[in-house]
Amino acid sequence: MKDKPVLVSACLLGCACRYDGASKAHPEVLRLARECTLIPVCPEQLGGLPTPRPPAERQREQVLTEDGRDVTAQYRKGAEEALRLARLFGCECAVLKERSPSCGSKGVYDGTFSRTLRPGMGVAAELLAENGIAVYGESEAEKLFA
């Protein structure tokens, strides 16, 4: 992956853009900066949502906040913008925040706000994968060094 552009969830790089206004800097993801050109994205912000924002979970094709507000349109817009940036910079892969309703790649919370995971992908991760971009979670970042 040397010198290749990689789309990365901005929160994994230490940007305070998560729903709770925090970041989730991840050492293996930060290490990628020595090997690749990282393109930071936060699909939720790209979709027009504020930081901080109410927690949201994916319920089938919709994304709803804990108080029942439908934010599906913002999540879709953010996913489309993330895909646009991936294409613009020639990214063939992405490292995204696991379990996120936007970025989760192996599982997402089930929509009950009970912290229960179910198989599935977040809105942005799904769109990227459908368009041929390999999507990894932060726990898989070391695969990009191989």
Provide an overview of this structure.
The chain has one domain. Helices cover 24% and strands 22% of the residues. Helix 1 (27-31) links the parallel strand 1 and strand 2. It has a four-stranded parallel sheet with strand order 2-1-5-8. The chain has a two-stranded antiparallel ribbon with strand order 3-4. A two-stranded antiparallel sheet has the order 6-7. It has helices spanning 27-31, 43-46, 72-89, 123-130, and strands spanning 5-9, 37-41, 56-59, 62-65, 93-96, 107-109, 117-119, 134-137. The chain is globular. The protein has 146 residues and is α/β, with parallel strands linked by helices. It contains four helices and eight strands, in the order βαβαββαβββαβ.
Task: Summarize the model shown.
The chain is of the alpha/beta class. The chain has helices at 27-31, 43-46, 72-89, 123-130; strands at residues 5-9, 37-41, 56-59, 62-65, 93-96, 107-109, 117-119, 134-137.
Give the biggest beta sheet.
4 strands, parallel
Q: Report the principal-axis shape.
A: globular
Number of helices: 4
Q: How would you write the strand order of the largest sheet?
A: 2-1-5-8
What radius of gyration results from the CA coordinates? 14 Å
Oligomerization category of the chains in this entry: single chain
Percent helix, as a range, is 10-25%
Distance N terminus to C terminus?
8 Å
Number of structural units classed as domains: 1
Strand tally: 8
Strand content: 15-25%
